[in-house]
Design brief:
Number of domains: 4
Shape: globular
Strand order of the largest sheet: 14-15-1-2-5-4-3-18
Helix content: 25-40%
Distance between the termini: 81 Å
Number of helices: 21
Strand content: 15-25%
Largest sheet: 8 strands, mixed
């Protein structure tokens, strides 16, 4: 059994497994992996790590071409930097954080290809934190200047404030064992003869009062070395763990190649940290097992039919709804069976056997043989082939089922983006996760806070009450919800509503009728989750994220019923200029108008100026009262208006960047994700432009064309710049009255050769003039004509073709299926915007 060096009395933590309550045990590892350059290699490495206890793994020499900040499909957070900017991508450091430790991460900063720092909070120890600095030192062949640059980078990393500090990694140094009793930072169980790099490391350790921990624990000789030379004859200890708090360390040991077999010439070095929380209870972060569950629709329908779903009118709306959700949830759980996580099926058994064979060969010391090298190359090719084969299999199955290929690509992706840093409203950048949560909370609370006072219009109380909801309406609304959509806070999916059948439809119709008559809804509907989808631009700016609200599917069925009832009134209220989210209209209508206008003005030498107006966060900024007033103005039954007011009053949402959700209050805007939201927003903008009372514009057959709207995409026409400027000032002023803000930096204008060159300004700010503009996905230009658009269409067609090329070139795929894929994927990309 390993024991502590008796010459180090300050190391007072007992060895071995500590089962005392009141202690927190953390396993922290360091490993030079030699390469994790692809996601498939990283996925295999994660599977290897499942064999050992390792809460946090610092890795180096990853050789990644790009940095990775992602949550893996198996639950781990992957925080890896990129290698150096050279052919071999030298270096690359980062961390792999297991799911149960992810909530403790405060910040992660990849400072360079050689140094990274991770800061975690020690749960139940107040504000005490632990900082882990991962290091990859230059090889012995590097110049001394490069080594000194490394230590300067480590010094910079040490400036991150924390209670405890660990510095670990591949130092390419040999420190050996203690030379005399004055070297308290070293134990007696080091390996090898100290070299110059070892002297430099000891100097650094003495400067910061660090102890080199893997020299304090007695092990067998074969459990001390961390690196083996290519000829397998030289074994050295060049990976170390340093700390300013040695009392926390219960053990430091090397994990053998028979356990972690990755093809690296380094062995994994693992530390066991034990923190005494005294009177506080020991905290365990249970890792959620990411197991997929298969839903049995027939069994679920049988259970729903046998359940008592009748509404209890004596209960409150909230209590009755919670009871319904509980019964649906219990039926879902009982009719679902666990299946193996999908990522385990990516690698075939043949590849697994090949990796086991490599591990045996390495344990036998045959790493220098030609057979070993050939096997390593074969494994790399096999893993790549298996991963691609798995992807093609999933795409082929999707093609045969006629489902979205993009959805399948998302499902088989091993990771999703999480921001590694954010900027506040002053542009100050931070990697601290607590601070990032604060920035996110402030940004969205400011965004959703009401800034314009809009009085509610007088209600018409003489209108007839709305009729009860029929179960046929519920059935129709549920069928309109697309399958595969994400659930809300109640975790009820569209498939659960569809499979419930007539018993569930009747139960929902009862409750929906009550909500309509009482003009009240369950409190649970006012709570939601919001995800952030990256658009374009700087990923560290929250302006470049689109918030999508994940609402209850029962709520969406209810609003779909309301929309189905009032859609006729809404469409009748909208003019021809508004084509967004309307039946019988599409982007093609407006594209045809704009292109015909530009061509005819050029043909008849008519001056033409066009402005493309952009609103900042339009859907999230419009005032609720402005939307309700627009509905009343255009004849929507006041009962529906009051009901929608109730639906949008007192709502909250949570945005989960990492682990602790940001709580956001919603006081304005329409929910992006709600079925009725696009219609309500379009109606509000229609009312705004109708109030402008514009004259002028471009005369066509006795009518004046001044603007076109497609939801919030607005284009304004004029004969000259002065007229255009006047037309831009008016909506800019009117928009602010209902909460909308014109984004002047993204608003552009252009003119043809028959209109004189001029400057357009709004509130003293110059609007940028452009030669071409992409409007509704179509390239418009007075100078290039259609040539620019033709180039875009060709690029889009080839991009679409390349995404499905393996399927189209698959000889085993039926020709009819290939034709269907080609016509549904490539042809729309080629012919978008074409009149044919």
């Amino acid at each position: 059994m390993p024991r502590l060096c008796t010459a180090s009395p300050h190391l007072g933590v007992r060895q071995g497994r500590n089962k005392d309550h009141g202690r927190i045990r953390i396993h922290i590892a360091s490993h030079n992996v030699r390469t994790l350059s692809t996601d498939s290699l990283l996925d295999i490495y994660l599977q290897q790590l499942e064999k050992i206890k390792a809460d946090i793994v610092g890795v180096c020499e990853t050789r990644r071409a790009r940095a990775v900040s992602a949550k893996w499909s198996s639950g781990e957070e992957i925080l890896l930097g990129e290698g150096a900017d050279n052919v071999s991508r030298t270096g690359g450091v980062g961390f792999i954080v297991k799911a149960k430790m992810a909530p403790s991460v405060v910040s992660c900063d990849i400072q360079s290809p050689r140094v990274a720092v991770l800061k975690i909070k020690l749960q139940k120890l107040g504000d005490r934190t632990l900082k882990i600095v991962q290091v990859y030192a230059p090889t012995a062949a590097a110049e001394d200047d490069e080594l000194e640059r490394l230590y300067k980078e480590i010094e910079r990393a040490l400036k991150v404030k924390s209670t405890y500090t660990i510095v670990q990694g591949d130092f390419n140094a040999v420190v050996g064992s203690r030379l005399d009793d004055t070297e308290h930072l070293l134990g007696r169980y080091g390996v090898g003869v100290r070299n110059e790099r070892g002297n430099r490391l000891i100097e650094f350790a003495e400067q910061h009062k660090f102890s080199i921990m893997n020299t304090f624990f007695e092990k067998k000789a074969k459990r001390l070395w961390t690196w083996r030379s290519p000829d397998t004859k030289t074994l050295r200890q060049i990976d170390y763990v340093l700390t300013d708090t040695p009392r926390l360390f219960a053990d430091v040991s090397v994990i053998g190649e028979s356990v972690i077999a990755t093809g690296s010439d380094h062995r994994l070095l693992r530390s066991v940290i034990v923190c005494d929380v005294r009177k506080e209870n020991r905290v365990l972060h249970s890792q959620k097992t990411l197991i997929r569950r298969t839903f049995n629709a027939d069994m679920y329908a049988t259970m729903i039919a046998s359940s008592d779903l009748q509404m209890n009118s004596g209960n409150s709306i909230d209590a009755d709804y919670e009871d319904l959700v509980e019964k649906i949830t219990q039926a879902v759980k009982a009719s679902s069976t666990a299946t193996e996580p999908a990522r385990r099926r990516r690698i075939t058994p043949e590849a697994v056997q090949m990796m086991k064979k490599r591990a045996r060969m390495k344990a036998e010391g045959r790493v220098q043989t030609a057979d070993y090298r050939e096997l390593c190359e074969a494994i790399r090719k096999k893993i790549k082939c298996d991963c691609e084969g798995y992807r093609q299999k999933k795409l082929r199955e999707a093609a045969e089922r006629r489902v979205s290929l993009k959805a399948v690509e998302r499902d088989i992706c091993l990771r999703h983006h999480i921001p590694s840093a954010l900027k506040d409203n002053t542009g100050l950048r931070t990697t601290n996760r607590l601070r990032m949560n604060e920035i996110c909370t402030k940004f969205f609370n400011d965004l959703y806070s009401s800034k314009a006072v809009v009085a509610r219009a007088v209600r018409n109380t003489a209108e007839e009450p709305i009729p009860d909801v029929m179960w046929e309406e519920v059935e129709h609304a549920v069928k309109q919800i697309k399958a595969g959509k994400s659930p809300g806070c109640d975790n009820i999916r569209p498939e659960h509503l569809k499979a419930g059948g007539l018993p569930l439809f009747k139960a929902l119709a009862q409750r929906f009728s009550r909500y309509c008559s009482e003009k009240r809804i369950p409190a649970a509907w006012k709570k939601s989750r919001t995800i952030l989808l990256m658009k374009k631009g700087d990923p560290e700016s929250l302006d470049n994220y689109r918030p999508i609200t994940l609402l209850s599917q029962v709520y969406k069925a209810f609003t779909r019923i309301i929309l189905n009832r009032i859609v006729g009134d809404l469409d009748m209220a909208m003019s021809r200029e508004q084509a967004g989210f309307r039946s019988g209209y599409s982007t093609l209508d407006h594209l045809h108008v704009v292109r015909q206008l530009t061509e005819k003005c050029g043909e008849y030498r008519i001056p033409l100026c066009i402005a493309f107006v952009d609103y900042r966060k339009a859907f999230d900024s419009v005032e609720t009262n402005a939307m309700l007033n627009a509905m009343s103005r255009y004849g929507v039954n006041s009962c529906y208006v009051d009901l929608l007011e109730e639906l949008n009053k007192g709502c909250t949402t949570e945005i989960k960047l990492f682990n602790d959700p940001c709580q956001i209050k919603i006081c304005k805007g329409v929910r992006q994700g709600d079925t009725i939201s696009p219609k309500l927003f379009a109606l509000t903008l229609e009312a705004l432009f109708n109030d402008l009372g514009w004259t002028g514009g471009i005369e066509i057959d006795g009518e004046n064309l001044t603007y076109l709207l497609f939801a919030d995409d607005c284009v304004i026409f004029a004969h000259d710049a002065s007229e255009l400027q006047a037309k831009l000032v008016q909506p800019q002023m009117k928009s602010s009255e209902i909460g909308l803000e014109m984004n002047l930096s993204k608003t552009k204008w252009m003119h043809n050769q028959f209109s004189p060159t001029a400057t357009v300004k709004i509130n003293g700010e110059t609007i940028e003039e452009v030669k071409s503009f992409k409007y509704l996905g179509h390239q418009l230009s007075f100078t290039e004509g259609s040539s620019g658009e033709y180039s875009w269409r060709r690029k889009a067609a080839w991009s679409s073709f390349n995404r499905i090329s393996t399927l189209l070139l698959d000889e085993d795929l039926p020709m009819k299926l290939k034709a269907s894929l080609f016509h549904s994927t490539v042809i729309p990309a080629v012919l978008y915007g074409a009149e044919c």
